[in-house]
Amino acid sequence: MIFADRVAAAGQLAEALSEYRGRNPLILAIPRGAVPMAKVMVDMLGGEIDVVLVRKLRAPGNPEFAIGSVDESGWVYLADYTATTGADETYIRNEVVAQLETIRRHRIQYTPVRPPLDPAGRVVIVIDDGLATGSTMIAALHALRAKQPAELICAVPVAPPDTLKKIRGNADRVVCLSAPVNFQAVGQFYLDFPQVTDEEVIAILAVAGHP
C-alpha cells in the first residue's frame, strides 16, 4: 500500500478508528512527522491533540539507525542488537543525556505555557507516520502506560511485521494499515513525504487550542 501523503494516511487511520468518534480521545503524535496527522485525526474523530516526546538513541557512526530510545521521564529502551553496533555503556549514557536535552528543548518549544495533557482514564491514540525498528513507539507507549489511560492504542499507516510483534505487547490495541515484508524505510510507502518543521508543529498545536 502506498499513501499519497501523511494527510491521506491519517484520514485512513481515522476511518479505521471511527468507533472512537465522540469518545473524546487524546491523540498523541510523535514529532515531528505525525503532528499534521494528529490534526487530521482530531478533525475527524474529535478529542484533543498533543505530542508525546521520545527520542531515538543513535548508533555510533550511524545516526539514522536506532539502537533504542528514551522517553521524557528518562526511561531507556535498548534493542537486543545494541551491543553489536559498538555502543558501550559510556556511549549510551552520553547519548541518553543528549537526547533528553533535545526532549526538554522541544517541550519548551511546543507547549511553553502548559504541561502535557493528562492521559489518565482516557482513550489514548498514539500515532506516527510509520515504524521501522519501533524503538520510539515502544518508549512512548511505556511512558503513557505509567499514566494509566483507560485504553492505549498504537496507530500507524505502515510497519514491518516483526516490528508490529514487538509493539503489540506494549499497547491494548495496534492498528496498522499495511505491514509489508519488503520494508526498507517509512518514506518508501509515501508518494509525498516532506520533512515537518518545528514551526509547523508549533502552529498546529496553537490552532488546536494549546498555545
Average pLDDT metric: 94
Strand content: 15-25%
CATH architecture level-2 label: 3-Layer(aba) Sandwich
Cα distance spanning the termini: 36 Å
**Widest beta sheet: strand line-up:** 2-1-6-7-8
What order do the helices and strands follow? HEHEEEEHEHEHEH
Q: CATH topology, anyone?
A: Rossmann fold
**Number of E strands:** 8
List the helices and strands and how they pair.
Layout: H1 6-16, E1 26-29, H2 35-45, E2 48-51, E3 54-59, E4 62-71, E5 76-78, H3 89-110, E6 123-127, H4 135-145, E7 151-158, H5 161-168, E8 173-178, H6 198-207
Parallel strand pairs: 1-2, 1-6, 6-7, 7-8
Antiparallel strand pairs: 3-4, 4-5
Helix pairs in contact: 1-2
Describe the structure.
The chain is an alpha/beta fold and 211 residues long. The protein has a single domain (1-211), classed as Rossmann fold (3-Layer(aba) Sandwich), CATH 3.40.50. 35% of the residues lie in helices and 22% in strands. The protein has six helices and eight strands. The chain has helices at residues 6-16, 35-45, 89-110, 135-145, 161-168, 198-207; strands at 26-29, 48-51, 54-59, 62-71, 76-78, 123-127, 151-158, 173-178. Strands 2-1-6-7-8 form a five-stranded parallel β-sheet, with helices on both faces. It has a three-stranded antiparallel β-sheet with strand order 3-4-5. α1 (6-16) packs across α2.
